[in-house]
Design brief:
A: alpha+beta; globular; B: about 130 residues; alpha/beta; Transcription Regulator spoIIAA; six-stranded mixed sheet; 3 helices; about 30% strand
């Protein structure tokens, strides 16, 4: 397959609405987030859900990605990663991916497994318990992924690949059903 | 004791409007809360509440009129509610109102979150539709 066909298959047949890889700069993220609202005008409830999930996933990348661009203004660096929004017949799929260190990947895997094993009520209880804990070493609230699962009302699909000693590539995907109304 | 007023804005990050009045004890947090440094933003707000509780000790009315807040901000909201709860336990008069848009089709999740705030802090929060 030539590169043009491959690109067509990836971008058009797979219905990619947003695909971005690079530095998670706040101005650029804000522009992408506005783009979500413009892309999904027909269903404001779904657009709001995707928007909320987008903010939590991209905030995680800004805070935790091992790959960082350090500038004089931002000595702790800005996280780099990937965010992709695709549209399918019955759902949207939001995927985020980034590099992570050993110290960050273990709690993330543990949290994702716990999230997927719980009912909605149990998940709310888990969120309340986790929210009581002190903020993470990067200032995060510990509950972003729990909120992602609650907002989507779907489990998290998470995978990680070991790259080198202590370095991982980590990916999380979540479906947002088109028939979701926010009501249980 | 000084009042706090911070004008809200919606740019790369979203700053909520903060309007705390030390004379009347009426405090409002409105708009959207998604901040670059959440704890840094909320620390003066925590300090204001601590000072009011320890020196002024008059009734406090908290009106939350937030249309969006991320999870880091929700943690700070819980911290505020916990401070108000301990003031109430210490004979302080506290009223907390949460205003919501009853025409928003996705309101279930926000109401669920307010219920979680009550369960988490033990503080009663009055739910009031916007426009009332």
């Amino acid at each position: 397959m030539d590169i043009g066909s491959e690109f067509y298959e990836y971008m058009v047949q797979d219905n990619v609405l947003i695909s971005y890889a690079g530095q998670f700069d706040s101005n650029l993220l804000s522009a992408l987030a506005s783009n979500i609202e413009n892309n999904i005008k027909s269903n404001p409830v779904i657009a709001k859900k995707i928007y909320k999930i987008f903010i939590e996933l991209t905030h995680n990348i800004s805070l935790y990605s091992l790959e960082r661009i350090v500038t004089e203004k931002i000595p702790e660096g800005v996280g780099c990663g990937t965010i992709i929004l695709k549209e399918f017949n019955d759902y949207y799929l939001l995927t985020s991916a980034n590099m992570a260190s050993k110290i960050d990947i273990d709690p993330i895997i543990e949290r994702c497994s716990a999230i997927n094993s719980l009912s909605r009520e149990q998940l709310r209880d888990y969120k309340r318990q986790q929210r009581k804990l002190p903020s993470s070493r990067k200032g995060g609230g510990n509950i972003g992924l729990i909120q992602v699962a609650l907002t989507a009302d779907n489990p998290l699909d998470f995978k990680h690949v070991t790259l080198n000693e202590g370095e991982y590539f980590y990916l999380v995907s979540v479906k947002i059903n088109k028939n979701a109304t926010g009501e249980e | 004791m000084k009042n706090i007023y911070i004008e809200g804005s919606h740019e790369a990050y979203f700053i909520p409007t903060v309007n705390f009045n030390a004379e009347t004890g009426a405090c409002e947090l409105a708009g959207e809360s998604y901040l670059e440094e959440t704890i840094k933003f909320y620390t003066p707000i925590f300090n204001w509440i601590k000072e009011y509780i320890s020196t002024v000790r008059r009734p406090l009315t908290f009106n939350f009129k937030l249309t969006y807040f991320n999870t880091s901000s929700s943690k700070c909201i819980v911290d505020i509610l916990n401070m108000l709860k301990s003031y109430q336990n210490d004979a302080g008069e506290v009223t907390v109102n949460w205003f919501y848009d009853d025409e928003d089709e996705d309101i279930e999740e926000e109401l669920e979150e307010v219920e979680d705030f009550m369960l988490e802090t033990g503080l009663k929060i009055n739910l009031i539709p916007f426009g009332q």
